[in-house]
Amino acid sequence: MELYDQIQEAVRFIRTVTDFQPLTGIILGTGLGNLANEVVAEATIAYTDIPHFARSTVESHSGKLILGHLDGKPVVVMAGRFHYYEGWSMQQVTFPVRVLNYLGIEQLIITNASGGVNPHLKAGDIVVVKDHINLLPEHPLRGLNDDRLGPRFPDMAVPYEPSLRIKALEIAKKHQIRAFEGVYSALQGPNLETPAEYEMLRKLGSDCTGMSSLPEVLVARHMSLPVLMLSMVANMAFPPSVIRETSLEDVIAVAKAAEPKLSTLVRGVVY
User: Fold this and answer.
1) d(CA 90, CA 3)
2) Torsions phi, psi of 210, nearest 5?
3) Is 150 left (phi over 0), alpha (psi -120 to 50) or beta?
4) Which fold has domain 3-269?
5) Helix (H), strand (E) at residue 50
6) What would the DSSP string read from start to end of 133-188?
7) CA dist 149 to 10, 104, 199, 221, 263, Å?
8) pLDDT tens digits, residue range 48-104?
9) Model-level pTM?
Protein backbone atom coordinates (compact mmCIF):
# COMPACT_ATOMS: atom_id res chain seq x y z
CA MET A 1 0.00 0.00 0.00
CA GLU A 2 1.35 3.45 -0.94
CA LEU A 3 2.06 6.02 1.77
CA TYR A 4 -0.79 8.23 0.57
CA ASP A 5 -3.26 5.36 0.89
CA GLN A 6 -1.95 4.51 4.37
CA ILE A 7 -2.52 8.12 5.44
CA GLN A 8 -6.08 8.08 4.13
CA GLU A 9 -6.77 4.78 5.91
CA ALA A 10 -5.55 6.22 9.21
CA VAL A 11 -7.64 9.36 8.73
CA ARG A 12 -10.74 7.32 7.90
CA PHE A 13 -10.27 5.28 11.09
CA ILE A 14 -9.96 8.42 13.23
CA ARG A 15 -13.11 9.78 11.57
CA THR A 16 -15.00 6.66 12.63
CA VAL A 17 -14.17 7.59 16.22
CA THR A 18 -14.83 11.34 16.00
CA ASP A 19 -15.70 14.05 13.49
CA PHE A 20 -13.97 16.69 15.65
CA GLN A 21 -12.09 19.25 13.56
CA PRO A 22 -8.78 20.46 15.07
CA LEU A 23 -7.01 23.58 13.79
CA THR A 24 -3.70 23.18 15.68
CA GLY A 25 -1.57 20.08 16.01
CA ILE A 26 0.70 19.78 19.07
CA ILE A 27 3.51 17.24 19.52
CA LEU A 28 4.57 16.83 23.16
CA GLY A 29 8.17 15.84 23.85
CA THR A 30 10.03 14.10 26.67
CA GLY A 31 8.72 15.08 30.09
CA LEU A 32 6.24 17.53 28.59
CA GLY A 33 3.11 15.40 28.57
CA ASN A 34 1.08 17.16 31.27
CA LEU A 35 -0.41 19.62 28.78
CA ALA A 36 -2.39 16.72 27.35
CA ASN A 37 -4.27 16.53 30.65
CA GLU A 38 -5.48 20.10 30.15
CA VAL A 39 -7.30 19.24 26.93
CA VAL A 40 -11.06 18.78 27.24
CA ALA A 41 -11.11 15.64 25.14
CA GLU A 42 -13.69 14.80 22.52
CA ALA A 43 -11.79 11.60 21.74
CA THR A 44 -8.66 9.82 22.93
CA ILE A 45 -7.18 7.16 20.64
CA ALA A 46 -4.24 4.88 21.42
CA TYR A 47 -1.55 4.92 18.75
CA THR A 48 -1.75 1.13 18.65
CA ASP A 49 -5.37 1.38 17.44
CA ILE A 50 -4.62 3.68 14.50
CA PRO A 51 -3.70 1.91 11.23
CA HIS A 52 -0.01 2.24 10.32
CA PHE A 53 0.95 4.15 13.48
CA ALA A 54 4.06 2.95 15.28
CA ARG A 55 4.05 2.65 19.07
CA SER A 56 5.90 4.87 21.52
CA THR A 57 8.52 3.02 23.59
CA VAL A 58 10.08 5.88 25.58
CA GLU A 59 9.24 6.61 29.20
CA SER A 60 7.02 9.73 29.59
CA HIS A 61 5.60 9.27 26.06
CA SER A 62 2.12 7.88 26.71
CA GLY A 63 1.35 7.05 23.08
CA LYS A 64 -2.09 8.45 22.41
CA LEU A 65 -3.82 10.95 20.16
CA ILE A 66 -6.11 13.42 21.92
CA LEU A 67 -8.65 15.51 20.03
CA GLY A 68 -10.46 18.23 21.92
CA HIS A 69 -10.35 21.81 23.17
CA LEU A 70 -7.47 23.60 24.89
CA ASP A 71 -8.82 26.80 26.45
CA GLY A 72 -11.78 26.44 24.11
CA LYS A 73 -9.62 26.13 21.00
CA PRO A 74 -9.72 23.00 18.79
CA VAL A 75 -6.51 20.97 18.93
CA VAL A 76 -5.15 17.51 18.29
CA VAL A 77 -2.35 16.51 20.64
CA MET A 78 0.23 13.80 20.16
CA ALA A 79 0.99 12.69 23.73
CA GLY A 80 4.33 11.16 22.82
CA ARG A 81 6.30 10.97 19.59
CA PHE A 82 8.38 8.39 17.75
CA HIS A 83 12.16 8.56 17.45
CA TYR A 84 14.54 7.22 14.85
CA TYR A 85 16.65 5.66 17.63
CA GLU A 86 13.71 3.47 18.66
CA GLY A 87 14.21 1.54 15.44
CA TRP A 88 11.39 3.08 13.38
CA SER A 89 12.00 4.25 9.84
CA MET A 90 11.84 7.98 9.16
CA GLN A 91 8.56 7.40 7.33
CA GLN A 92 7.11 5.77 10.46
CA VAL A 93 8.47 8.55 12.68
CA THR A 94 6.76 11.21 10.57
CA PHE A 95 3.61 9.35 9.56
CA PRO A 96 1.48 11.00 12.31
CA VAL A 97 2.32 14.46 10.98
CA ARG A 98 0.96 13.42 7.58
CA VAL A 99 -2.21 12.23 9.26
CA LEU A 100 -2.62 15.43 11.29
CA ASN A 101 -2.28 17.44 8.10
CA TYR A 102 -5.05 15.44 6.43
CA LEU A 103 -7.21 15.87 9.52
CA GLY A 104 -7.18 19.54 8.55
CA ILE A 105 -4.84 21.28 10.98
CA GLU A 106 -3.56 24.70 9.95
CA GLN A 107 -0.44 24.91 12.12
CA LEU A 108 1.86 22.52 13.96
CA ILE A 109 3.53 23.17 17.33
CA ILE A 110 6.43 20.86 18.16
CA THR A 111 7.96 20.66 21.64
CA ASN A 112 11.03 18.80 22.85
CA ALA A 113 13.70 18.69 25.53
CA SER A 114 17.27 19.47 24.51
CA GLY A 115 20.81 19.96 25.68
CA GLY A 116 22.00 23.57 25.74
CA VAL A 117 25.20 24.26 23.80
CA ASN A 118 24.95 28.04 23.97
CA PRO A 119 26.70 29.06 27.21
CA HIS A 120 24.19 31.89 27.73
CA LEU A 121 21.34 29.41 28.16
CA LYS A 122 20.31 27.84 31.46
CA ALA A 123 18.45 24.63 32.26
CA GLY A 124 14.74 25.41 32.05
CA ASP A 125 15.12 28.08 29.37
CA ILE A 126 13.02 27.82 26.22
CA VAL A 127 14.49 28.15 22.76
CA VAL A 128 12.08 29.38 20.10
CA VAL A 129 13.70 27.66 17.15
CA LYS A 130 14.39 29.85 14.13
CA ASP A 131 16.54 27.40 12.15
CA HIS A 132 18.11 23.99 12.45
CA ILE A 133 21.11 21.81 11.60
CA ASN A 134 20.08 18.32 10.50
CA LEU A 135 22.74 15.72 11.35
CA LEU A 136 20.42 12.71 11.30
CA PRO A 137 21.60 9.80 9.11
CA GLU A 138 18.31 9.28 7.25
CA HIS A 139 15.71 11.53 5.65
CA PRO A 140 11.91 11.14 5.69
CA LEU A 141 11.59 12.40 2.11
CA ARG A 142 14.09 9.93 0.66
CA GLY A 143 12.68 7.77 -2.12
CA LEU A 144 10.06 8.33 -4.77
CA ASN A 145 8.14 11.56 -4.25
CA ASP A 146 4.34 11.60 -4.25
CA ASP A 147 3.27 14.98 -5.63
CA ARG A 148 -0.03 14.68 -3.76
CA LEU A 149 1.95 15.10 -0.53
CA GLY A 150 4.35 17.82 -1.60
CA PRO A 151 7.12 18.81 -4.05
CA ARG A 152 10.23 16.76 -4.80
CA PHE A 153 12.52 19.54 -3.57
CA PRO A 154 10.79 21.49 -0.78
CA ASP A 155 12.35 24.87 -0.03
CA MET A 156 13.67 25.40 3.50
CA ALA A 157 14.64 29.07 3.39
CA VAL A 158 12.12 29.78 6.20
CA PRO A 159 11.58 26.46 8.00
CA TYR A 160 9.84 27.99 11.05
CA GLU A 161 6.88 30.35 10.71
CA PRO A 162 8.06 33.90 11.62
CA SER A 163 4.64 35.07 12.85
CA LEU A 164 4.43 32.15 15.29
CA ARG A 165 7.98 32.76 16.55
CA ILE A 166 7.24 36.45 17.11
CA LYS A 167 4.03 35.64 18.97
CA ALA A 168 5.76 33.08 21.20
CA LEU A 169 8.51 35.56 22.12
CA GLU A 170 5.95 38.28 22.86
CA ILE A 171 4.06 35.93 25.19
CA ALA A 172 7.31 34.97 26.91
CA LYS A 173 8.19 38.62 27.48
CA LYS A 174 4.72 39.35 28.84
CA HIS A 175 4.98 36.51 31.36
CA GLN A 176 8.69 37.11 32.17
CA ILE A 177 9.70 33.71 30.81
CA ARG A 178 13.32 33.25 29.71
CA ALA A 179 12.96 32.45 26.01
CA PHE A 180 15.39 33.05 23.18
CA GLU A 181 15.46 32.49 19.43
CA GLY A 182 18.05 29.94 18.45
CA VAL A 183 19.24 27.10 16.24
CA TYR A 184 18.36 23.47 17.07
CA SER A 185 20.53 20.57 15.94
CA ALA A 186 19.63 16.89 15.87
CA LEU A 187 21.70 13.72 16.08
CA GLN A 188 20.29 10.21 16.08
CA GLY A 189 20.94 9.15 19.70
CA PRO A 190 20.06 7.38 21.89
CA ASN A 191 23.33 8.23 23.64
CA LEU A 192 23.88 11.78 24.78
CA GLU A 193 26.68 13.55 22.96
CA THR A 194 30.34 13.50 23.99
CA PRO A 195 32.09 16.73 25.07
CA ALA A 196 33.83 16.88 21.68
CA GLU A 197 30.50 16.49 19.89
CA TYR A 198 28.91 19.25 21.96
CA GLU A 199 31.86 21.50 21.12
CA MET A 200 31.47 20.65 17.43
CA LEU A 201 27.76 21.54 17.55
CA ARG A 202 28.51 24.88 19.16
CA LYS A 203 31.12 25.66 16.50
CA LEU A 204 28.56 24.80 13.82
CA GLY A 205 26.21 27.41 15.25
CA SER A 206 23.83 25.28 17.31
CA ASP A 207 22.23 26.68 20.45
CA CYS A 208 20.58 23.47 21.60
CA THR A 209 20.60 19.87 20.47
CA GLY A 210 18.34 16.83 20.64
CA MET A 211 17.36 13.54 19.02
CA SER A 212 13.98 14.34 17.50
CA SER A 213 11.67 16.86 15.82
CA LEU A 214 13.54 17.61 12.61
CA PRO A 215 11.98 14.71 10.67
CA GLU A 216 8.54 16.05 11.63
CA VAL A 217 9.55 19.57 10.59
CA LEU A 218 10.77 18.36 7.20
CA VAL A 219 7.55 16.49 6.50
CA ALA A 220 5.37 19.39 7.72
CA ARG A 221 7.19 21.81 5.46
CA HIS A 222 6.94 19.29 2.60
CA MET A 223 3.17 19.76 2.98
CA SER A 224 3.45 23.58 3.45
CA LEU A 225 2.26 23.31 7.05
CA PRO A 226 3.41 26.25 9.25
CA VAL A 227 5.61 25.08 12.14
CA LEU A 228 6.60 26.43 15.54
CA MET A 229 9.21 24.53 17.55
CA LEU A 230 9.74 25.19 21.25
CA SER A 231 12.74 23.45 22.78
CA MET A 232 13.10 23.28 26.56
CA VAL A 233 16.73 23.18 27.68
CA ALA A 234 17.04 20.23 30.07
CA ASN A 235 20.78 20.26 30.72
CA MET A 236 23.79 22.41 29.93
CA ALA A 237 26.47 20.89 27.72
CA PHE A 238 28.83 23.76 26.83
CA PRO A 239 31.47 24.72 27.73
CA PRO A 240 32.81 21.24 28.60
CA SER A 241 33.44 22.28 32.20
CA VAL A 242 29.68 22.43 32.91
CA ILE A 243 28.89 18.97 31.57
CA ARG A 244 27.49 16.59 34.17
CA GLU A 245 26.35 13.01 33.76
CA THR A 246 22.68 13.17 32.79
CA SER A 247 19.99 10.48 32.94
CA LEU A 248 16.53 10.33 31.39
CA GLU A 249 15.14 10.86 34.88
CA ASP A 250 17.15 14.08 35.16
CA VAL A 251 15.77 15.32 31.83
CA ILE A 252 12.20 14.48 32.80
CA ALA A 253 12.56 16.22 36.17
CA VAL A 254 13.81 19.47 34.60
CA ALA A 255 11.19 19.27 31.85
CA LYS A 256 8.36 18.81 34.32
CA ALA A 257 9.57 21.78 36.38
CA ALA A 258 9.73 23.99 33.28
CA GLU A 259 6.54 22.66 31.71
CA PRO A 260 4.24 25.43 33.03
CA LYS A 261 6.34 27.99 31.12
CA LEU A 262 6.19 25.97 27.94
CA SER A 263 2.47 25.43 28.42
CA THR A 264 1.96 29.19 28.67
CA LEU A 265 3.63 29.71 25.30
CA VAL A 266 1.73 26.89 23.61
CA ARG A 267 -1.62 28.10 24.96
CA GLY A 268 -0.89 31.61 23.70
CA VAL A 269 -0.12 30.48 20.16
CA VAL A 270 -3.02 28.04 19.74
CA TYR A 271 -6.05 29.45 17.94
Assistant:
1) 12
2) -150, -165
3) left
4) Rossmann fold (3.40.50)
5) none
6) EE--S--TT-SS--TTT--SS---SS-S-HHHHHHHHHHHHHTT--EEEEEEEE--
7) 15, 14, 37, 10, 31
8) 999 999 887 665 556 899 999 999 999 999 998 999 999 999 999 999 999 999 999
9) 0.94
